[in-house]
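Predict structure. Chain length: 162.
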Amino acid sequence: MTINEYKTVVGELGPRLLQFADYQVGSIEVAKDLVQESFIVLLDKRENVEPAKAKAFLYAVLTNKTRDHFKLKKKQVEVQDYHRIEEDKQAKLDSKELVKLALSKLNERERDLICLRDLEGYAYDEIAEKMELSLTQVKVYLFRARKALKNEIIKLEVEVRL
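Prediction complete.
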């Protein structure tokens, strides 16, 4: 991949990657950092990545970066979420914030499945390949993830109203 192709990939995928990361981690500032780190990895490995495969490469790197973020910050995220809920009890959460907060409560696989399918629009077979699952597993896990997301949203709405 040439530098010009790299710049094109950054321009085309940057906003979508940022949105994906924002939904994953629930913080636009952290999302910006993770996306930037992902682009740095692509820049370092651009000689080995074909432009046509750059999107899949970047989503894989970004997914790994978000997983690493949660492994390192798991306890901190829980504390931040608690304080955020306490603050939000005084002011209603808007829908987008409610979904982001609920997504942060899901496990990695559930969050990845919902983001890939419902936010990024990947087909089930693409998700199966990307996550190394069978098509049936993707459908079952996605159903369960959506159910878990719904339950988290309901819990958060109840907490905010109390």
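Summary: The chain has a mean pLDDT of 80.
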